[in-house]
C-alpha cells in the first residue's frame, strides 16, 4: 500500500505563499481589482509577467532541463490559494496549469521530449514571456468525450494543417500568445496555433466573473502544427483538464478562506443592540458551519495536489472530490459573506460580489460539482440512485 500523502504545507509551499501574498497585497489590492472591472480588458498583464517571471509561477511544473523550476502540483496549488484569496486578474490557470500540464503530457514522445513541439513551447512558457491556453469549452471534463469544437479544414501551401470551427467561452484565451486546440478527426489530434495567425479571431463574451474573462475563439482556416495525435492527444487534453480542476479547487479554497476571514472580521465590528453581531448564537453557528466545510475542503484539495504531484493512481478520485467539495465551500462562503455583511455586501463598491461571481463561475469551469460527483460515483463503483 502506498504511503498516505502529507497534507500539511511544506516550508517551500509556505514561503511561496507568503511571497505571493505580500506581492498581491501591494500590486493587486482589492480596490485595484475593483477598479479594473470598469475597463474593457480586466487582466493585469503587468502583474502576471511579474508573477510568472520573477516568482516563477509560469515554470513551476516545467522540468529544470526545459528551463522550469521542476516543482510540483503541491506548490502550484499553494500559489493558487493566494490567487483565489486576492481574486487576482491574471491568466495563471490557463497557462501555468492547464496548458502546461497538456504540453507536459504531449512532450513524452517516441522521439524524446527534448525535440518535440510541445517541449519547444514549454521552454518558451518557462520564462513567463509567452502565455498559452488550452482552447476547450468551459464545461469540458477530464475523462469525458474529447472536447473538440474544431476540425481539420485542409493544409496550407507550407504543409501546415488548417483548422476551422468555433470554441465558445474559453477562459484565459484573450491574453494568450499561443493556443492549444483539440480538433476532431481520424484520429483526433491536438494542435498548436500562434495567437497572431491569420484567420484566428477572439471575441470577448459576457462573463459573470469579471476578473477571469472568457472569449469565443473562431478559426477560419488557421494554420496549425500538430502537437499530439490519437491516444497521446486525448491523454494530453485529459491531463490539462485534470490539472485545471485540481488547481481551480485550490483557488476556490483560498477564496473561501478569505471570505470567511472577511466575514469574521466584520461581525466582530458591526454592532446591534449594543453588542457585536458576531456574539449572536445564530451567526456563530453559520460561521462554524463555514469553517467546517472549508477545513474539509482543504484536506480534499491538498490530497488532490499530492496525488497529481506523485502520479498516484487515486488522482482521478482525488480531483473529483476536491473540485466538488471546494466549489461548494467557496460558493457557500461567498454567499454568506454577502449576507452577513448586510446592506454593504450588496453594494458595487464592496468586494463581496467579486468573490461570489468568481466562486460561481469557477464552479462551472472544468466540470460542475454535480458532474464531478457523477464521475466519482463511476470511479468508486457506486450504484446510481433508484426512483
Count of domain modules: 3
Q: Order of strands in the sheet with the most strands? A: 2-3-7-5-4
Estimate the strand proportion. 15-25%
Would you give the CATH topology of the largest domain?
Butyryl-CoA Dehydrogenase, subunit A, domain 3
* CATH architecture descriptor text of the largest domain: Up-down Bundle
Instruction: Please identify the structural class as seen in this structure.
Output: alpha+beta
Question: By CATH's scheme, which homologous superfamily of the largest domain applies?
Answer: Butyryl-CoA Dehydrogenase, subunit A, domain 3
Helix-strand topology string: HHHHHHEEEEEEEHEEHHHH
Any low-confidence stretches, pLDDT <50, length ≥5? 110-114
CATH level 1 name of the largest domain: Mainly Alpha
Radius of gyration: 21 Å
Shape: globular
Task: Please give the number of β-strands.
Answer: 9
Q: How large is the count of helical segments? A: 11
Amino acid at each position: 500500500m502506498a504511503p498516505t500523502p502529507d497534507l500539511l504545507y511544506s516550508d517551500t509551499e509556505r514561503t511561496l505563499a507568503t511571497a505571493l501574498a505580500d506581492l498581491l497585497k501591494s500590486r493587486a489590492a482589492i480596490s485595484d481589482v475593483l477598479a479594473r472591472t470598469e475597463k474593457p480588458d480586466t487582466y493585469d498583464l503587468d502583474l502576471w509577467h511579474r508573477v510568472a517571471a520573477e516568482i516563477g509561477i509560469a515554470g513551476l511544473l516545467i522540468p529544470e532541463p526545459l528551463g522550469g523550476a521542476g516543482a510540483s502540483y503541491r506548490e502550484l496549488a499553494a500559489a493558487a490559494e493566494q490567487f483565489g484569496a486576492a481574486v487576482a486578474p491574471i491568466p495563471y490557470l490557463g497557462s501555468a496549469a492547464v496548458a502546461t500540464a497538456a504540453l507536459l503530457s504531449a512532450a513524452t514522445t517516441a522521439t524524446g521530449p527534448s525535440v518535440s513541439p510541445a517541449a519547444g513551447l514549454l521552454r518558451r512558457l518557462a520564462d513567463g514571456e509567452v502565455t498559452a491556453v488550452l482552447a476547450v469549452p468551459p464545461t469540458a471534463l477530464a475523462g469525458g468525450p474529447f472536447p473538440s469544437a474544431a476540425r481539420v479544414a485542409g493544409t496550407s501551401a507550407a504543409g501546415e494543417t488548417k483548422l476551422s470551427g468555433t470554441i465558445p467561452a474559453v477562459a484565459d484565451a484573450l491574453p494568450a500568445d499561443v493556443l492549444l486546440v483539440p480538433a476532431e478527426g481520424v484520429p483526433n489530434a491536438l494542435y498548436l496555433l500562434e495567437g497572431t495567425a491569420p484567420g484566428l479571431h477572439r471575441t470577448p463574451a459576457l462573463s459573470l466573473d469579471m476578473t477571469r474573462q472568457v472569449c469565443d475563439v473562431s478559426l477560419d482556416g488557421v494554420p496549425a502544427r500538430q502537437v499530439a495525435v490519437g491516444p497521446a492527444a486525448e491523454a494530453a487534453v485529459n491531463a490539462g483538464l485534470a490539472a485545471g480542476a485540481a488547481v481551480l479547487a485550490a483557488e476556490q479554497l483560498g477564496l473561501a478562506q478569505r471570505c470567511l476571514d472577511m466575514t469574521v472580521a466584520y461581525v466582530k465590528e458591526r454592532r446591534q443592540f449594543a453588542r457585536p453581531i458576531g456574539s449572536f448564537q445564530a451567526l456563530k453557528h453559520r460561521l462554524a458551519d463555514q469553517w467546517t466545510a472549508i477545513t474539509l475542503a482543504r484536506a480534499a484539495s491538498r490530497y488532490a495536489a499530492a496525488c497529481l504531484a506523485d502520479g498516484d493512481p487515486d488522482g482521478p478520485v482525488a480531483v473529483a472530490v476536491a473540485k466538488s467539495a471546494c466549489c461548494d465551500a467557496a460558493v457557500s462562503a461567498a454567499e454568506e459573506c454577502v449576507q452577513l455583511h448586510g446592506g454593504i455586501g450588496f453594494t458595487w463598491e464592496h468586494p463581496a460580489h467579486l468573490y461570489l461571481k468568481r466562486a460561481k463561475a469557477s464552479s462551472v469551469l472544468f466540470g460542475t460539482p454535480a458532474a464531478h460527483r457523477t464521475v466519482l460515483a463511476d470511479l468508486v463503483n457506486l450504484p446510481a440512485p433508484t426512483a
